[in-house]
Prior knowledge:
Elements: E1 7-13, E2 25-30, H1 37-45, H2 49-52, E3 62-67, E4 71-75, H3 90-101, E5 105-113, H4 120-131, E6 136-141, H5 148-157, E7 165-168, H6 176-184
Parallel strand pairs: 2-4, 2-5, 5-6, 6-7
Antiparallel strand pairs: 1-3, 3-4
The structure holds guanosine-5'-diphosphate and magnesium ion (MG).
Amino acid sequence: xxxxxxxxxxxxxxxxxxxxxxxxxxxxxxxxxxxxxxxxxxxxxxxxxxxxxxxxxxxxxxxxxxxxxxxxxxxxxxxxxxxxxxxxxxxxxxxxxxxxxxxxxxxxxxxxxxxxxxxxxxxxxxxxxxxxxxxxxxxxxxxxxxxxxxxxxxxxxxxxxxxxxxxxxxxxxxxxxxxxxxxxxxx
Length: 187
Ligand SMILES: Nc1nc2c(ncn2[C@@H]2O[C@H](COP(=O)(O)OP(=O)(O)O)[C@@H](O)[C@H]2O)c(=O)[nH]1
Ligand SMILES: [Mg+2]
């Protein structure tokens, strides 16, 4: 059993060269700014770690949290607020392309706001995951604010996308389903 409460912030890096080299598995969290990534990390870890180590401003870094001395949770920079409003900015896009093609990610959680339509950026992220065969799950956030009909619509938007697993967050049962999801990528 992984003890998610045994967690610490390790480093932030704007390039693959600066990422840990100890070969521990990594689970990466992806999603637009404000989708609820930090909130999800804190729920998983049962503590407020993600806020305190949040990098300020426009710094686009991969933020590494070591969990139970066994694997990394990686908080990827939020996208969606670029200089031109739409489209992944090129620095960020190429960092994520390098990241996924490096094979570092044992799994990914793509966070989508249950009440919003998927953006171009969300779809670009999905394409990267599919191209590099990264196992991933979709986590619909803010489902406590959504009606049942909105949830149904959100799932349908995914259409034929291959995500094997879909979770609505925050689930009534708390963090357990999310932790199980993360653990499933570490087998
Ligand atoms: N109601 C509700 N609010 C949420 C949820 N997740 C995040 N939020 C709120 O959405 C805002 C952005 O969340 P944050 O975790 O900082 O997003 P990030 O930019 O993706 O890291 C904050 O005000 C959170 O309190 C959720 O599941 N339900
Ligand atoms: Mg955040």
